[in-house]
Design brief:
This protein is α/β, with parallel strands linked by helices. The protein has two domains: 238 residues, Alpha/Beta hydrolase fold, catalytic domain (Rossmann fold, 3-Layer(aba) Sandwich); 86 residues, Rna Polymerase Sigma Factor, Chain: A (Orthogonal Bundle), CATH 1.10.1740. 35% of the residues lie in helices and 14% in strands. The protein has ten helices and eight strands. The longest helix is centred in the last third of the chain and has 17 residues. It is globular, with a radius of gyration of 19 Å. The two termini are 35 Å apart.
Length: 353
């Protein structure tokens, strides 16, 4: 595996709270998938913060959420924060299908709907290839939120000897019926747009993004209390939703990429890890490293009982409730108090446990 020329990257506009770092591209060659298919000419995009020590054992792999990029957990990165580049080498990787790593939207060999479907286990397998290429035998930790948290749990089941500590925010061990319903509706919102031809999007699905943004950025990601805080005058709701839709059309995930990542999300079940016989208990029982699982009391995308269940099944798991009204967005910097708690809790876990 060797570095390749930078492919087409779909990167949203840089936000003030994101950390701008050079994009690194690692070629993976042909990537075999658990379905038996393969992604041809695969690559992963990633950024790093800090440097590897002489022993090459201070790397933390940070995993991206559904439809998101390596910036997803930037609020945890920096001197004095949980993921401190003065202590660790932080490797923030873009998941398969997010428009930066190999995706239906940027594949030359298998573009669009010709791209093979992949799974969250395939994401983890691609990341293992990346850390092999970086000369990292064992990770100090893996850390992620939402689909990133699900990848973290999968790392614990798939390759436990390579993970020192596990941090999973708002994860699921197996995608719930509720979450799958949301994903299906999000796909329909995009595919009912006139731009969808049945095989591809002939243009930007503007109407589809308007519905998608209302579903994914409000109904699934927030709570009634959270929306009341950020939008105290209900009369502004229509305008607010319109703004979200306009932003999604510009900065949201490519619609084909979103469809593929949600298919991976829908199909996730850590119990299907090879050798576990379909048992979630057996799969998480492999993850013997110290593990921290965090979730809010209410999450309208990934039910928080799933996170509690994961913590209970992990041999050295600890559950911490995020005392937030922000729902799925509690694992973000939407509320500065949530961000501060996560930095304290995760930072302490990495240093003390």
């Amino acid at each position: 595996m060797s570095a390749i020329a930078k492919p087409s990257l779909r990167h949203p506009a840089l936000r003030p709270d994101w950390i701008d770092r050079p994009h690194e591209i690692q070629s993976l060659g042909d990537l075999p998938l658990e379905s038996g298919a393969a992604i041809r000419d695969a690559h992963l995009c990633y950024v790093t913060h800090g440097t590897l020590n002489a022993a090459r054992d201070n790397a933390i792999l940070v995993l991206s959420a559904i439809g998101a990029t390596h910036h997803r957990l930037d609020f945890l990165i920096g001197p004095g924060r949980a993921l401190d580049p003065q202590r660790h080498c932080i490797v923030c990787v873009d998941a398969l299908g997010n428009g930066l790593s190999i995706s239906p939207s940027n594949s030359r060999a298998q573009p669009g709907m010709g791209f093979p479907r992949f799974s969250i286990r395939d994401m983890v397998a691609s990341q293992a290839r990346l850390i092999d290429a970086l000369g990292i035998a064992r990770l100090a930790a893996v850390c992620g939120a939402s689909m990133g948290g699900m990848q973290a749990l999968q790392w614990g089941a798939s390759d436990p000897t390579r993970v020192g500590k596990l941090i999973a925010m708002t994860p699921m061990t197996r995608t719930s019926s509720w979450s799958r319903a949301i994903a299906e509706l999000s796909r329909q919102a995009l595919m009912l747009d006139p731009a969808w031809t049945g095989e591809r999007f002939a243009g930007t699905p503007t109407r589809g993004y308007a519905l998608w943004a209302g579903l994914m950025r409000v109904l699934a990601s927030r709570t009634p209390d959270a929306l009341a805080r950020s939008l105290p005058d209900p009369a502004g709701t229509t305008a607010y939703l319109a703004e979200l839709g306009e932003d999604a059309a510009i900065n949201g995930p490519d619609p084909i990429d979103w469809i593929y990542q949600t298919w991976a999300y829908d199909g996730h079940d850590v119990g299907q890890t090879p050798g576990c016989g379909g048992s979630i208990e057996a799969a998480l029982g492999r993850a013997v490293m110290p593990a921290l699982v965090l979730a809010p009391p209410v999450d309208l995308y990934n039910p928080p009982d799933e996170a509690r269940r994961a913590a209970a099944l992990l041999p050295r798991g600890t559950f911490v409730e995020i005392p937030s009204v922000e729902g799925h967005q509690a694992a973000s910097a939407v509320d500065a108090r949530d961000a501060a708690l996560l930095n304290r809790t995760i930072g302490r876990f990495l240093v003390e446990v």
